[in-house]
Ribose-5-phosphate isomerase A
Amino acid sequence: MSQMTQDELKALVGQAALAYVVPGEIVGVGTGSTVNKFIDALAALKDHIPGAVSSSEASTARLQALGIPVFEANTVGELAVYIDGADEIDPAGHMVKGGGAALTREKIVAAQSRRFVCIADESKVVRTLGAFPLPVEVIPMAAARIARQFAALGGDARVRLKDGVPLVTDNGQHILDVTGLQISDPLAFESQVNQWPGVVTVGVFAHQKADVCLLGTPGGVKTLTF
Ligand code: 5RP
């Protein structure tokens, strides 16, 4: 096991997450390279579930390509489980997410789900959130002012670029990536930043934290419960 690559660890936890899919129930599906492994594994269960609610156009395309129906969030009720990756996870199950720019829809589907199962390799575990640049989805006209608000907290916010121009999210907005923060009280921080005009979603998932984390380690899958 010690020779496993990060990609193999992602495949391991993607496969392990199948145990949390409830037969007969629609599953909430996140976004990212780890979730892609989960989606690929989910194809084996497609005759046992009605389908999925997806957190991004990218995951929707991957699910549909594998023949897994995708439901619009408004057309279904509460989901049994939401399965997604993370950029960082702390010992209480609080996370930083949004490295794939899908944080808003991720938080929406997580909020619609009874249980959040995080799948990650052990490089994502941190004592305090903030080493990974914090993604924040913002209304473009508010970006400069929000960047100044982060500066007042000691952060350095930059508009995320793609091909030299601001990246546009699935929701038509921009992403700020904020470095230099130490998020010691994730619940309070998430509530605070969410109040700032023009913030669509802050990438701290403390109110929608993980209930379970399946962690890929050289020794196999470690299950953390919070
Ligand atoms: C996308 C996310 C992802 O869950 C996060 O970036 C982890 O991605 P990966 O599995 O590729 O490391 O929040 O917005």
Remarks:
- The CA atoms of residues 54 and 131 lie 28 Å apart.
- Residues 30-34, 84-87, 97-103, 106 surround ribulose-5-phosphate (CB under 6 Å).
